[in-house]
Write a structure and sequence with these properties.
The chain is α+β, with helices and mostly antiparallel strands. Helices cover 27% and strands 27% of the residues. It contains three helices and five strands; from the N terminus they run ββββαααβ. The protein has a three-stranded antiparallel β-sheet with strand order 1-2-3, with no helix packed on it. A two-stranded antiparallel ribbon has the order 4-5. A hairpin with a 5-residue loop joins strand 1 and strand 2. The longest helix has 14 residues. The N terminus is likely disordered.
Length: 94
């Protein structure tokens, strides 16, 4: 069973433990502003549609995060949907 960990404060640090070892994920710092939306997704999304298409899919942004996530999933499936698609959207509110 995978173990997911994160550390705060500061930049979000994620790690994934799998039976074969530990995978370190690259992190990047960005200054977030109130209302910014963060997208975490599997390769099932980003291998089917590129960054420009992802942005176009959610512009203008749907009324809710679940509606935006569904639009992204639908776009990946319409582009061929060769893999499972996972999408997590977070809205920064501070």
């Amino acid at each position: 069973m995978p173990a997911y960990t994160y550390e705060t404060p500061g930049p979000l640090r994620l790690s994934l433990e799998i039976p074969f070892g530990r995978i370190e994920l690259e992190t990047v710092e960005h200054q977030l502003e109130k209302g910014d939306v963060i997208l975490l997704c599997s390769d099932g999304l980003h291998s089917m549609i590129n960054d420009e298409a992802i942005l176009k899919t959610v512009t203008p942004f749907p009324a809710t995060l679940p509606a935006a996530a569904q639009k992204l999933i639908d776009a990946a499936n319409e582009a061929g949907g060769k893999d499972n698609v996972s999408v997590v959207l977070l809205r920064y509110t501070e």
